[in-house]
Design brief:
Strand content: over 45%
Largest sheet: 3 strands, antiparallel
Shape: rod-shaped
Number of strands: 13
Distance between the termini: 71 Å
Helix content: 10-25%
């Protein structure tokens, strides 16, 4: 990835502030100033593009006329679960060494976010990390008025992701959105920062993908041993497809006999009259 920016003078570079400082730090030695004063930097980039596509998959086949034997393979598909952006606001104070003298003025502050650990929790992802700071300031010492210090402020924040499970996959990116430093008293600096956390989570779902179906004649002995008519009490999680397949009939036949509407699924505890169907004939 190439970045081309115009910097007329070094004063302009300083005015740009954190953006140019971070750019030069990331570019390391892979940057140069051209003849026109432009800054050309080569930055290592890792960009990933995601596109969610919906497919209609055949996961089961059945007919009361023939015995169907599906053949295929097990696959794990990823479904976009959530994309969420959250902010963590941090406020803390850091101590300045007393041996350096009293701080007269803060000149510059910059920082970056480092994520140490992430883990999946209930309905979210917990992120623990630190904000790494660099502060330049002036003290009351004419011989050496400029000093700089480094500090780290820890933070812990949960990014909401409803429905996330331990087997879900996710990516979490963090960046420092805002940073301000102000003198609290002679030897303390008050830090206020905002960390932006972007979460992309996907659910991994195992599915059996049918590639072909082999048809076989019906096992008449097995069918004769099945009841021809019965009353079935619907249980939680039951679907008409499963009931029809288990008792060798069709979904439409169950709807017609029990007066159910199109696409209507019976609620748990509902009694259903089920009649066995073989080769298009009710027996």
């Amino acid at each position: 990835m190439y970045f081309l920016g115009k910097c007329d003078r070094m004063d302009t570079l300083r005015q740009i502030g954190d953006m140019c400082m971070n750019l030069i730090a990331a570019a390391d030695e892979n940057w140069a100033i051209g003849k026109d004063g432009g800054l050309l930097a080569h930055l290592p980039g890792d960009m990933k593009f995601f596109r969610e596509e919906e497919y209609d998959l055949i996961t089961d086949v059945y007919t009361p006329i023939r015995e169907c034997v599906p053949e295929g393979k097990n696959e794990v598909l990823e479904r976009l679960l959530v994309r969420n952006f959250s902010r963590c606001r941090i406020s803390d104070r850091i101590q300045v060494k007393e041996t350096q003298g009293k701080v007269l003025q803060l000149c510059h502050s910059q920082g970056k976010v480092k994520i140490d650990k992430t883990r999946i929790v209930e309905n979210g992802v917990q992120a623990d990390g630190v904000v790494m700071l660099k502060i330049l300031y002036i003290i009351g010492n004419d011989d050496m008025p400029f000093y700089s210090m480094e500090a780290m402020i820890p933070f812990s924040h949960m990014v909401e992701a409803r429905g996330i499970r331990q087997d879900s996959c996710y990516q979490l990116k963090a960046k420092l959105e805002q940073l301000s430093a102000a003198m609290a008293d002679g030897n303390e600096i008050e830090i206020r920062a905002t960390v932006g956390l972007e979460l992309l989570a996907v659910a991994r779902e195992p599915v059996f993908i049918i590639e072909k179906v082999e048809e076989k004649p019906l096992d008449m002995k097995k069918l004769q041993a099945m009841p021809g008519i019965l009353v079935y009490m619907v249980k939680p999680g039951d679907e008409l497809w499963d009931i029809a397949r288990k008792y060798h009939t069709s979904v439409q036949e169950i709807r017609t006999i029990n007066g159910l509407k199109e696409n209507q699924e019976p609620s748990p505890g509902t009694p259903l009259l089920v009649v066995k169907k073989v080769e298009g004939q009710i027996k």
